[in-house]
Amino acid sequence: MADPSTDAPPGPLPSHVHTPVLLEEVLGYLNVQPNGRYVDATIDGGGHATAILRASAPDGAVLGIDRDPDLPAALRETLAPEIRSGRLKVVVGSFRDLSEILLAEGFGPADGLLVDLGLSSHHLDRSGRGFTYGRNEPLDMRFDPTGGDASAADLLARLDARELTEMFRTYGEERFASRIARSVVAQRRTAPIRTSEDLLQIVERSLPPNTRWRASRHAARIFQALRIAVNDELAAVEEMLPQALAALAPGGRFVAISFHSLEDRMIKRFLKEQQQAGRVRLLTKKPIQASQQEIASNSRAASAKLRAAERI
């Protein structure tokens, strides 16, 4: 396997491209080669994809996929030269439909496939969809707001206390899930819960007095749980994993970055099962995490975990 520490792209990424997490490690574990074909199934701001294109020059190709239609639209401007050259194709879609997308695009088999399951800076800082308690925004939380799926506000309005408790406990691993769920039900009897500030206030007043100084931690778990439920994220990951493996050529690399334990456990279990079946060779016995230097410059990298395998 290529040494991830030696495969950094030549020089910094262009200023218009966001800095992705674990970039050197991604390039190393993907074993990016000149003229290779790669899939970035969560292209987001294009940071990983841009680095893969540079490392696979002169004729390497990347197919980038993202569920949020705003992101591919923006990338068609910021990465226009790469798209015009034919080396980059960006499409709107969910990685749960990976096989269908690759077939439609005539792309494959791939030499490497990356999924970065983190919430993007776009969603947190610019989308206006209520992904974070740090901004007072409408509680939407849909990655694709043009679809017909229920928003976060819709779920808070219709789920009963038992269903809310299960969601907060399962997806957020929240200790006070039941208390917060009951508060949601009580609040909506008098006024709808429409904004991130509304939900934050409910979380704060639901906590025992001696824990309210840590309200932000509990709010983060509740927002995470709600976002996962709105976007059906865990089911999407479960459906994507076998498709990702099937998309690879023999010797192709699969790299996954997750940011919470539910996804990491799912990926770990899948790769172990595939190893036992003789379909892959594990490249990471334990998850790879960001260095202290990277975390110092990008705090969002602190919870990132990378796992990788090679198709046999």
Write structural notes for this entry.
- The chain is 45% helix and 14% strand.
- It has 14 helices and 8 strands.
- The longest helix has 17 residues.
- The radius of gyration is 20 Å and the shape is globular.
- The chain starts with 22 loop residues before the first helix and ends with a strand.
List the helices and strands and how they pair.
Layout: H1 23-30, E1 37-40, H2 47-55, E2 61-66, H3 70-78, H4 80-84, E3 88-92, H5 98-105, E4 110-116, H6 121-126, H7 152-158, H8 161-172, H9 177-188, H10 196-206, H11 215-231, H12 233-246, E5 248-258, H13 261-276, E6 280-282, E7 288-289, H14 292-297, E8 305-311
Parallel strand pairs: 1-2, 1-4, 2-3, 4-5
Antiparallel strand pairs: 5-8, 6-8, 7-8
Helix pairs in contact: 8-9, 8-11, 9-10, 10-11, 12-13
- Give the integer mean of the pLDDT values: 91
Number of strands: 8
Quote the beta fraction: 5-15%
The total number of structural domains is: 2
Q: CATH superfamily name of the largest domain?
A: Vaccinia Virus protein VP39
**What is the CA-based Rg, rounded?**
20 Å
Uncertain segments are 1-11
What percent of residues adopt helix (DSSP H or I)?
Answer: 40-55%
SSE order, one letter for each helix or strand: HEHEHHEHEHHHHHHHEHEEHE
Q: Structural class per helix/strand content?
A: alpha/beta
Separation of the first and last Cα atoms: 14 Å
CATH topology of the largest domain: Rossmann fold
CATH hierarchy, class of the largest domain: Alpha Beta
Note the main sheet. Answer: 8 strands, mixed
The CATH architecture of the largest domain would be 3-Layer(aba) Sandwich
